[in-house]
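Annual report, structural modelling task.

Input specification for the zinc ion complex:
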Amino acid sequence: MKLSNFEDSIEDVILERGLDYFQNGRVENVIETTDGYTVEINGSDYYTVEIYLGHEDQVVDSFCDCPYDWGPHCKHIAAALFAIREKELKPKKSNKKNAARNIAELFNFAWTVKRLMLIIVAS
Ligand SMILES: [Zn+2]
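The model returned the following structure:
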């Protein structure tokens, strides 16, 4: 499954519970690792979820240390995926904004220099 459409691969009931956890701030820590993320979830107990990401946001593997064993994904993994996707999508947008702002500032600076030169030349 991919980070962009992990909903397709996880049961609806689990997704709903995971989203609920995510929206209620139970995802306490999203820590970037060399090959994915470690996510700390404050549920009925503290659980640690590990998500391994491959190329193009492919979710290669996922683990949770909770006792749930009814299926491949528990609500903690779902909550972690919601949190990671938000984290992955947000910085990219703001980076683009920052880049655009930096370019604008550079142009402003160039324009100021040009005007100063004109003033100097004129006087
Ligand atoms: Zn779990």
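The chain has one domain: 3-90.
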